[in-house]
Amino acid sequence: MTLGWPFSGFRQGGAKSRLIFALDVGSLREAEQLVRTLAREIGLFKIGKQLFLHAGPPVVRMVRDRGGEVFLDLKFHDIPRTVAKAAAEATRMGVRMFDLHASGSLAMMQQTVTEVNRVCRNEQLRRPKILAVTVLTSLTREDLRRVGVQAGVESQVVRLARLAHEASMDGVVASPLEIGRIRRECGRGFLIVTPGVRMAKSGWDDQKRVLTPEQAILAGADYIVVGKPIRDAKDPQAAAREIVAEMERAGAGQRVRGREA
Fold first, then answer.
1. Three-state DSSP class for 21?
2. Does residue 75 have an active-site annotation?
3. Whole-angstrom Cα distance, residue 169 to residue 117?
4. Domains along the chain?
5. d(CA 25, CA 7)
6. Nearest-CA neighbor of 168 among 126, 132, 121, 220?
7. pLDDT tens, position by position, for the chain (261 residues)?
8. What is d(CA 152, CA 148) in angstroms, rounded to the nearest whole number?
9. CA-CA distance, 133 to 157, in Å (whole number)?
């Protein structure tokens, strides 16, 4: 039995193409330094709210000018038209992927997909991957209960993943602990981007649902997001290479299992 890893990704771009580095810094200068250091070691740079609000669209251009790809992690959540128009602007910036909250509704996701497809067709743009955020990796069952969600974390994640799949989204952002059920419900072509990944020797900080890179890949993640273990390392390049090597070992193990199945 295969566990869901897209083997073609290793053949085409290597494991490093599936490693997303969280560019969670507070200045353009810090971001530029990290991009210069890591551009050849990883697949994408994740730009979140802090850096984007500080530096704006120029930070996306900076990453792309240095040969990097961007995951714009702004987690859009608003009325359908507003999110769809924001998604069109993200597309025009040339990001490789961006996300929105699945809890914003089926209509919000469907309208976003329609608008992005229209803009790409009319303006001859590369289509980004559109991801739905399910349940943040910092949240627990008790957190959900306190905001009125009675289902457990996994049930809520899978419910939102199914909704995203129905809306023709490209995939979801979900913790490594829910990958198996998402794969069963949504199929292997549905992308799973997995934050909450830490090295075995690292602290968990504010993440609650966490696995190591090897465990996440073995579970079937398509991409993993890593920030602090690389950013705060004495040698960020070496830290990134260590994670890629761990991903490669996990991918090799999956290929062997796939042949044996």
1. strand
2. yes
3. 11
4. 7-260 (3.20.20.70)
5. 32
6. 132
7. 334 444 334 345 689 999 999 999 999 999 999 999 999 999 999 999 999 999 999 999 999 999 999 999 999 999 999 999 999 999 999 999 999 999 999 999 999 999 999 999 999 999 999 999 999 888 889 999 999 998 889 999 999 999 999 999 999 999 888 899 999 999 989 999 998 787 765 544 554 556 888 888 988 999 999 999 999 999 999 999 999 999 998 877 555 455 444
8. 11
9. 9
Task: Write down the pLDDT at residue 176.
Answer: 82
**Distance between CA atoms of 173 and 137, rounded to whole angstroms?**
9
State the Cα–Cα distance between residues 151 and 43, nearest whole angstrom: 35
Give the SS3 label for residue 108.
Answer: helix
Q: Among all chains, which residue has been given the structure tokens 């490693």?
A: 19
123-143 burial code (b ≥16 CB/10 A, e <16): eeeeebbbbbbbbbbebebee
Element spanning 46, H or E: strand 44-47
Sign of CA dihedral 216, 15, 133, 212: positive
pTM of the model: 0.88
Q: Which amino acid is at 52?
A: F
- Residue 175 corresponds to which tokens in the numbers above? 């913790």
- Whose structure tokens read 């996440």? 216
Q: Which of 16, 49, 75, 85 is catalytic?
A: 75
Distance CA 40, CA 29 (A): 19
Strands (E), 134-240: 171-173, 191-194, 223-226
